[in-house]
Amino acid sequence: MGEDQWRRCCSGEDRISGLPDEMLQEILVRLCCARAAARTGLLSRRWRRVWPHLPELVLDDDDPDAPPRASFMDAVDAAIGACLAPTLELLLISLSPFGDSPPVPAGRVARWLRFASQCVVGTLYLYAPSPNDDDDREEVMLELPACKGAKNITLFLAESWRLQLPPAGLFMALTSLSISSGRMEGSELTALVCTRCPRLKLLSLCTTLVTTFDFTIRSDSLVLVSLRWLYNTRRLEIVAPRLEELLLSHVIEARISAPKLAKLAWHGAGYDPHCHQFVDVGRRLKLLEIGTGESIVPSFMRQFDEVDELKLEFDMVCLCDFFKLNFLPFNDLYLLLCLTHTRKYRVMKAS
């Protein structure tokens, strides 16, 4: 270290503040907390004008240092109001559902979503607990504005939120959409997936339809679909020529057309070839995952000629009871038992 450098270090000179704004922003982004980034403004005037230009805003009240719910929501409003970045690569707003906290006003969440629709060009993550008191289950409307620039949207909503779409607008850049809980009209959810998101590749849904509805997915872009729970779905139809991975759970009736399907997971429902139809699906799978004993039936596995990897989820008691009740032929029983000891099998048709 040279003499001049040694003197600067000993004098306590602030060398970090002399770095370019872009480098300081990179440092603040790594804090993963907008409140912590804002507090660096106490260091000097220079730092005060750095954090409002951050390309990422992370606001999470699960942080041990987060203030009470009411103050935290004020902090979210303040951070959004102070934001000077033209676009955001990440906007994360997460309010913990635990603890004795006041409800989240619908107007506030709506403002946050409108802000996201104007600024987010990367990822939007929103965790919104109930807008009501614990003893109030009344639905509260929440509009999801068209986020033209967002590429990834993840929404965790309390059951009392009812998500709705504006009359017009496209999610032109959206490639990944995940909605957990909340409620939505079946027709609006169909429109969102089929017509409002022309570039959507990844879709994950675990939500409730307002009324019983025949839900249809028609997409030329989807590659992965995960439907862990769609309560009030009477019949499911999927037409997706590029779909490669599919997870279905608790499906009463389904019709699947996915010629490129390579990975299939089937959970929480038995299989009935009259109600669950694979009309245009390849005969070879890389992965077949079957959950619950009632789903393990030979007729389902014989939909496919070859599977590279098979995953079965069951307990032995349920499996043995299933065999006793259904009086499976020896060939089928032998096939099922063999599958638990191999990663690759070829389905043998019993003569």
TrEMBL record:
Residues 109-264 form the F-box/LRR-repeat protein 15/At3g58940/PEG3-like LRR domain. It holds the Pfam family LRR_At5g56370. InterPro entries: F-box-like_dom_sf, FBL15-like, LRR_FXL15/At3g58940/PEG3-like. Transmembrane segments: none annotated. It comes from the Eukaryota. This is F-box/LRR-repeat protein 15/At3g58940/PEG3-like LRR domain-containing protein. It comes from Urochloa decumbens. The lineage of its organism: Eukaryota, Viridiplantae, Streptophyta, Embryophyta, Tracheophyta.
